[in-house]
Structures are given as C-alpha cells and as structure tokens.
Design goal:
There is one protein chain. The chain has helices at residues 2-16, 32-53, 59-77, 89-93. By secondary structure, the chain is mainly α. The protein has a domain at 29-80. The longest helix has 22 residues, at 32-53. It starts with a helix and ends with a helix.
C-alpha cells in the first residue's frame, strides 16, 4: 500500500512541474522593422499624452489606442519576409 502511495505522489509531483521547453523556440528575433514599429508606437503614445494634456479629447484617444493596440503589438510580432526558395536552373529552362 505504501509503494502505491509513493508512486501516486511521485506522479502527481512530476505532473505539477511544467515541461521543459526547447530554448530555441523561446528566442525572439527583433529586426529593423520591429524597431521602427516599436519606435512609432512609443512616439504615437507620447504624442497622445501631449495632445491629452492640451484637452483634445478626440485626437488623444485615437493616438493612444493606435500606439497601445496596433503599433506596439505589431512591432513585437512582426517578422521579416523570407525570400521564396530558389528553383534549380535545370527546372527553370523546361
């Protein structure tokens, strides 16, 4: 009975631990496009707060939403377009 209890406890403890993820799958590559989009998002947010300080309640929310909900997330997930695979020369002639 004690052996069964130990096996169950060990199984519960191992299931509670998260599985180790592959380190290469967790890397984030930020390129120039990402930097431009993130920079544009930060500029848009700063301009939104400046306009908000001027009491313009129409333009300020538009700038803030564009910065927070469009440009910054887009800058984080945007990736470089890859070139299409090259076709061998013998297949191009036919």
């Amino acid at each position: 009975m004690a052996d069964v209890r130990r096996k169950i406890d060990a199984h519960v403890r191992s299931a509670a631990r998260p599985a180790k993820a592959d380190a290469s799958a967790q890397t984030v590559e930020l390129h120039r496009k990402n930097g431009i989009l993130l920079g544009a998002g930060i500029v848009c947010i700063v301009l939104g707060f400046i306009v908000l300080g001027m009491r313009n309640i129409t333009l300020a929310p538009i700038l803030l939403l564009a910065g927070y909900l469009v440009l910054v997330p887009w800058g984080l997930v945007a990736h470089r377009k890859t070139a299409p695979p090259s076709v061998p020369e013998d297949l191009q002639k036919s």
